[in-house]
Amino acid sequence: MSAIEVAGLRKAYAGREVLHGISFELRTGEVLALLGPNGAGKTTTVEILEGYRRRDSGDVRVLGVDPESAGADFRARIGIVLQSSAVYQLLTVREIVALFAGYYAEPRRPAEVIELVGLAEKHDARVRTLSGGQLRRLDLALALVGDPELVFLDEPTTGFDPAARRQAWETIRDLRSLGKSVLLTTHYIEEAQRLADRVAILRAGELVGTGSPSELLSGHGAVEIRFRRNGEEVVIDTEEPTRVLHELTAQAVADGVELEGLQVHRRTLEDVYLELTREEAAE
Amino acid sequence: MRLFLHELRAQQLLFWRNREAAFFSFLFPIILLVLLGSVYGDEPIEGIRAATYLLVGLLGYGIAATAFASLAITLVVRREQGLLKRVRGTPLPPATYLSAVIASMVVVIALQVVAQLLIGVYALDADWPAAPGSFAVGVLLGAAAFAALGVAVTALVSTAEGSSAVVNAIYLPMAFISGAFFSRQEMPAFLEAISDLLPLTYLLDLIRATFVDGEDLASSAGPLAAVAVWGLFGLVVAVRMFRWEPREGITGA
Q: Per-residue confidence at A221, pLDDT binned at 50, 70, 90?
């Protein structure tokens, strides 16, 4: 069974359509990254799946139910990290995690969740004394305390320093190893590449690529070879760099010329991402 | 019920943890009581001893200030911070959250009224309530009604920054026109006509009838019903219009 099934999802704000009929699925137990630039529709998509927003059309099933009409039972099975964190400033970390634990019939132990997100040494600190990164970890703790099957993480590491980001990644990997399904939105390619089993690239309300990072790469020429011939730049994308290079260099040696500025570059997810999302600017 | 008590406890913790706000919402009506008391001295108002008359008015004012105004501002701030949106994403039913918020205000008002009574009676020599049981029911009903109206009024406010301006513009004139600080009999006719519509007018009537005249609930059924109707109106608006999400500057992202 899939944790999330989306088919033909459309949404407009004030007459302007921001989702043009997107379809994807999140398989149970996998981490899917919804990757795209700001304004691509990531948060709108996630908030429709979480039940915060109504869709205009399309079929949406989250944990087998329609989030638009789902109630408390549904919300007991999901955990949400919103894009901006907001928590009662005057409570301590332990108090607020215990408060949220109380909303669920079968929560995890608050102390255990606080430990999991790495806030153990802060558990008696008032929320308002936490740093930005610590607040974000508290967000994660609140999303996990109900022991959800499916976790939504909307840009969970935006604004983190590199060390904090790595720590957050560890926590998200832990979720995966616990068998949770995770829908992650991000505009960091590295984050998607490191965490996600599959990546869905969203551009201006349309999905322009879906697949595992290696699948996304293979469709677009895994290796790029560049050199100059008579002052002109030549670019060859190929799945068979050994053969192509061999032919090129053999020819050059036979002709007694140098392949000027020869570069061989294994393409990254970033190259594919930028290519897929750049086309939009040309439209 | 477990969820309701859990949330009620949390709302109490949140109220008392904010010591500044809690302290001043207790203190402010008392300061006004002392100030107005020194203005009016011992002259009777509407045939009632000034200290007692003013104490009754300020009990009503205190209910409007805390259960209506402070609650509305607090809820708008929570909403605009995104806190309510987050609560909405948990299995806690929305109606449970709102009823716990209202019940929490009833608890606060009960304590606030006791504090004001003690100061009014022992420091300013006001009378004790003549019909304490009916008076208590009136106060608790008033607290619930004004808290429901406080929840409802958040629908009119779109920013946290604007919340105190909007809320003050509603409840302060209401307190004046309803006669919390002085007798309605001294007002021009058009203000009296407005005051005939306001919930605080009826809450003050109810408190005055039970506190001063010692009437029971049956004989003050008119004001009792008016306060209840206003409370129900607040509840209906609250259920239908309450927003859980902040007004978004940018949609679509």
A: low
Sheet holding A2-13, edge to edge: A16-27, A2-13, A57-62
- Ramachandran bin of B71, using left for φ above 0, alpha for ψ from -120 to 50, beta for the remaining angles: alpha
For B253, the closest of A43, A75, A146 (CB atoms) is A43
Asked if the interface predicted TM-score (ipTM) of this complex is over 0.95, the answer is no
Q: Which of B5, B79, B87, B90 to mutate to test the interface with A (most CBs of A within 10 A)?
A: B90
- Which of B5, B74, B86 would you mutate first to test chain A, the one with the most A CBs within 10 A? B86
Domain of A63, in residue numbers: 2-213
Residues A195 and A260 in one domain: no
> CB–CB of A226/A41 below 8 Å?
no
The domain ranges of chain B are 2-241
- Tens of pLDDT, residues A16-51: 999 999 999 999 999 999 998 888 999 999 999 999
- Flag whether residue B249 sits within 8 Å of chain A, measured between CB atoms: no
- Domain check: are A159 and A256 in the same one? no
Between CA B101 and CA B104 the distance in angstroms is: 5
Q: Whole-model pTM?
A: 0.88
Same domain, A172 and A61: yes
Between residues 180 and 239 of chain A, which touch chain B (CB distance below 8 Å)? none
